[in-house]
Amino acid sequence: MASPLSKRPAGRDIGRIAGAAVFDRAALPRVLPFLVYLAFILLADVLGRLGFAPAELRWLYTVKIVAVLAVLLACRRHYTELSGPLPGVAALATAVVAGVVVLVLWISLNASWMQIGSSSGFDPRVDGAIDWSLVAIRIGGAALVVPVMEELFWRSFLLRWIEAADFLRVDPARVKTKAFIVTVLLFGVEHTLWLAGMVAGAVYTLLYMRSRSLWIPIVAHGVTNGLLGAWIISTGHWTYW
């Protein structure tokens, strides 16, 4: 009789081992930028509890965006879902329209029961005057860096990983209801406006599933964030940042 140590893993065990290896290798480049982003949110919260005023922490956003961008650039060769031909004009137009629709819903779904806690936001005014360098960094980061970081994590990685550990092989169009619901719920509660976040998450996920191109939700997400920034500047609703 062969000893337990000499037994070879069953096929299912081999599959789990292979899946874990794929997770370790493919997930990290998509998870790490998101974790860096969260780390700065946690840092800002800790500094706020230590007595730093929001105005004193405005510089932290610049550092956060630079750090996330640095990780994205360092890992760029791993993002195979962003390679290949770019989407056509019709698909991009759909993404733009979807981004605008999400913006309208985002600034409308703001009843007290639709919020988790409160946010002091990001006020770019210095001595009563808007600091346009802070505005440029905030809108640029929100429209160009954050959508890439978040879509790589929420849509490309988590949505498909819930389906299978070897998530890169999962066709977005074949993602099942469970993965859709879980990612939409989590994306929503990540934001202060949780209902608006869920609506946005649902729209971006459906765009990804329908187009099978991560660029489409990235563009829609970027349009939403960019226009939201313009709306905030024009209205002074700093808490939306």
Automatic annotation (TrEMBL):
TM helices/strands, residue ranges: 34-52, 59-79, 85-109, 179-207, 214-233
GO BP terms, alphabetized: CAAX-box protein maturation
One GO MF term attached to the UniProt entry: endopeptidase activity
InterPro entries noted in UniProt: Prenyl_protease-related, Rce1/LyrA-like_dom
Keyword annotations from UniProtKB, A to Z: Membrane, Transmembrane, Transmembrane helix
Keyword Transmembrane helix attached: yes
Domain CAAX prenyl protease 2/Lysostaphin resistance protein A-like: 136-226
Top-level taxon of origin: Bacteria
Keyword Membrane among record annotations: yes
Name recorded for this polypeptide: CAAX prenyl protease 2/Lysostaphin resistance protein A-like domain-containing protein
